[in-house]
């Protein structure tokens, strides 16, 4: 039994895929599985907030976010045609203390009013936030984080079989469910953040939003919260040279931003 388990571990840990930027990443969970899990998590996350009237409570703010995000999604779908079949959706969550935004696998998005208000975010800066989040979904980063969690559970499984410890076996039973839930809140790796920066700033520029806003956004983010950093920074670690890298990327993306072609808006739910 132990030999069979070790063989399974070796085979699964060797499972990897290539990201849109050519980076190899561990992938025990397929993009389809990640999308299915995220669809359920999205509903569960929003339900109690909707009951409290905290979802899309201000029509003007919702219209603004939908328009900006719709332009971004139109470019994402143009660059990655398979995502046209995703159920793209964006919600504005009324929480003035929460400075955060996210995009789950399959294009399920949310942004908190705390980010909009505390940062006094311009349209260009909102586009950089949501473009970055969309990039995480396009690069299968949710599936990657789920895979990391599942790999940890496989390690626990091996320990349980080897030790015959019933307490470990209890952890195994809830492992797959916990992995899916945990993946949604796990911090992104530095490599994933860099990849999302590159992809997100291009998507925003192609949608007609100033790529130079990426650097000003992170400047504002660093000043918010005092001793308690905003939630966005806990899941999006920022290396010291990030602003410099973003400024360099912005110069490369300026031609896309300056194009005068029409900027379509994707209809969001």
Shape: globular
Beta strands, count:
5
Task: Summarize model confidence as the mean pLDDT.
Answer: 80
Query: Helix and strand succession?
Result: HEEHHEEEHHHHHHHHH
Our estimate of the beta-strand percent is 5-15%
Q: Helical proportion?
A: 55-70%
Instruction: Report the end-to-end length measured between terminal Cα atoms.
Output: 49 Å
Rg, alpha carbons: 20 Å
Number of helices: 12
**Which structural class fits the helix and strand makeup?**
mainly alpha
Sheet with the most strands, sense and barrel status = 3 strands, mixed
- For this entry, what is the oligomeric state of its chains? single chain
In which order are the strands of the major sheet placed?
3-5-4
Molecular structure report:
The chain is mainly alpha-helical and 269 residues long. It has a domain at 31-141 and 187-258. It has twelve helices and five strands. The strands form two sheets. The protein has a three-stranded mixed β-sheet, sandwiched between helices. Strands 1-2 form a two-stranded antiparallel sheet. Strand 1 and strand 2 form a beta hairpin. Helix 3 (59-79) crosses helix 5 (123-138) and helix 5 crosses helix 9 (190-206). The chain is globular. Mean pLDDT is 80; it is low at 4-14 and 155-180.
């Amino acid at each position: 039994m132990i030999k069979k388990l070790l063989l399974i571990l070796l085979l699964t840990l060797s499972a990897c895929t290539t990201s849109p930027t050519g980076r190899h990443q561990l992938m025990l969970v397929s993009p389809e599985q990640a999308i299915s899990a995220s669809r359920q998590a999205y509903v569960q996350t929003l339900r109690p907030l909707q009951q409290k009237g905290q979802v899309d409570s201000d029509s003007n703010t919702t219209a603004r976010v939908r328009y900006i995000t719709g332009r971004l999604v139109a470019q994402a779908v143009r660059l990655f045609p398979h995502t046209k079949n995703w159920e793209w959706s964006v919600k504005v969550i009324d929480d003035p203390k929460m400075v955060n935004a996210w995009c789950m696998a399959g294009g399920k998005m949310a942004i908190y009013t705390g980010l909009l208000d505390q940062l006094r975010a311009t349209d260009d800066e909102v586009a950089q936030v949501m473009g970055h989040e969309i990039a995480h979904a396009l690069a299968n980063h949710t599936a990657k984080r789920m895979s990391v969690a599942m790999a940890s559970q496989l390690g626990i499984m091996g320990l349980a079989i080897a030790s015959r410890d019933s307490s470990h076996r209890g952890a195994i039973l809830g492992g797959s469910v916990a992995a899916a839930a945990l993946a949604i809140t796990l911090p992104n790796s530095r490599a994933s953040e860099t990849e999302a920066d590159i992809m997100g700033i291009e998507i925003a520029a192609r949608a007609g939003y100033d790529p130079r806003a990426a650097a000003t956004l992170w400047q504002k983010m660093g000043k918010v919260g005092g001793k308690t950093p905003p939630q966005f920074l806990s899941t999006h670690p920022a290396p010291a040279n990030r602003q410099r890298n973003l400024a360099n990327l912005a110069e490369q993306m300026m031609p896309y931003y300056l194009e005068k072609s029409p900027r379509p808006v994707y209809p969001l739910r």
